[in-house]
Design goal:
Layout (H helix, E strand, L loop, with lengths): L4 E4 L5 H10 L1 E4 L11 H5 L4 E4 L7 H7 L5 E4 L9 H6 L3 E3 L6 H16 L2 H9 L20 E5 L3 H9 L6 E5 L6 H7 L1 E3 L2 H7 L2 E4 L13 H6 L5 E4 L8 H9 L5 E4 L10 H4 L4 E3 L8 H19 L11
Parallel strand pairs: 1-2, 1-3, 3-4, 4-5, 6-7, 6-9, 7-8, 9-10, 10-11, 11-12
Bound molecules: (2R)-2,3-dihydroxypropanoic acid.
(2R)-2,3-dihydroxypropanoic acid binds next to loops.
């Protein structure tokens, strides 16, 4: 029997590829970087399955190009806004993702960003490297205390909860906004309380975003919301860029509407507002929320297993089709 054909859009950790190789014929894109849109239709042709990244837009056109054999699209990410799931469902194509395995790693990064922006770590690093360190100074790089502050979490799913769990050691007050509040037991265990978005914006010293990108959450944080935030507060985003109106954020940071921001994700990745890059009160990292050796390996294994179970005709554990 001929083995199913799988196209993998970019090199992922070997552990995942080994699993696929056991029962599939795999081709991994050898393009150095995100596979260009112009090459995608030819590459996906006649595939039974695709293993794709959040940087690949998988829409109707790509599904048509893949052809009638296509049974599964396995996303190497928990967020799957890059895939037209409605179209895939219409065509009987299963779509899967990698939840859970990257929760703690992403929560770690949200905290790393929060601490970096509050204590001006990147500015300090730049100053030292520029040879401007003159010794201890009473007024050098004063930052904001994290302990005993109020942390507001927008979105209280797996990652939001993992961020809250880390707050205990800092004695933070944690409030969250989610359209589906967690049970009173979880709230008690994590010492958090649910508030509406306006209250969260007005009361928080640090706001960290943990909702998926959907039509509903697109530009959830715009000028109006930024204006509601405290002047001394910070915004952290490790979810998806378009949840925040980037132009409005730049203006708020420039005008001192909020004190700072720390961002792992951007509205039009990899492009970033030039003005954002010029600001000192923002920490910018290149979408590395899940980027630890261990987590990326776990994601590769999970994405491969999802794909294989779909090809076997089973229901993959992490299916996202409704
Ligand atoms: C995800 O899985 O959605 C993350 O953004 C990957 O780092």
């Amino acid at each position: 029997m001929t083995k199913p054909r799988i196209f993998v859009t970019r090199l992922i950790p070997q552990e995942g590829l080994e699993i696929l190789k056991e029962c599939c014929h795999i081709e991994v894109s050898d393009h150095d970087g995100v596979i260009p849109r112009s090459l995608l239709p030819e590459k996906v042709k006649d595939s039974d399955g695709l293993l794709v990244l959040l940087t690949d837009m998988i829409d109707k056109e790509v599904m048509i190009a893949a052809g009638k054999k296509l049974r599964v699209i396995s996303n190497y990410a928990v967020g799957y806004n890059n895939i037209d799931v409605v179209e895939a469902t219409k065509r009987g194509i299963m779509v899967t993702n990698t939840p859970g395995v990257l929760t703690e790693t992403t929560a770690d990064l949200a905290w790393a960003l929060l601490m970096s922006i509050a204590r001006r770590i990147v500015e300090g690093d730049k100053l030292v490297r520029a040879g401007k360190f003159r010794g201890w100074e009473p007024m050098l790089l004063l930052g904001t205390d994290i302990y005993e502050a109020t942390l507001g979490l927008i979105g209280f799913g797996r990652i939001g909860q993992a961020v809250a769990r880390r707050a205990t050691g800092f004695n933070l007050k944690v409030i969250y906004y989610d359209k589906e509040p967690v049970s009173p037991n979880i709230e008690k265990e994590l010492k958090v309380s649910c508030v509406n978005l306006d209250e969260l914006l007005r009361k928080s010293d640090f706001i960290s975003v943990h909702v998926p990108l959907t039509e509903e959450t697109f530009h959830l944080i715009g000028q109006e919301e930024l204006n509601m935030m405290k002047k001394e507060s910070y915004l952290i985003n490790t979810a998806r860029g378009p949840i925040i109106d980037e132009k409005a954020l730049v203006k708020a940071l420039k005008d001192g509407v909020i004190r700072g921001a720390a961002l792992d994700v951007f509205e039009n990745e990899p492009a970033i507002e030039q003005e954002l890059m010029a600001l000192d009160n923002v920490v910018i990292v290149p979408h590395i929320g899940s980027a630890s050796y261990r987590t990326r390996t776990k994601m590769a294994i999970m994405a491969a297993k999802n794909l294989i179970s779909a090809l076997k005709g089973e229901r993959p554990e992490f299916l996202v089709n409704p």
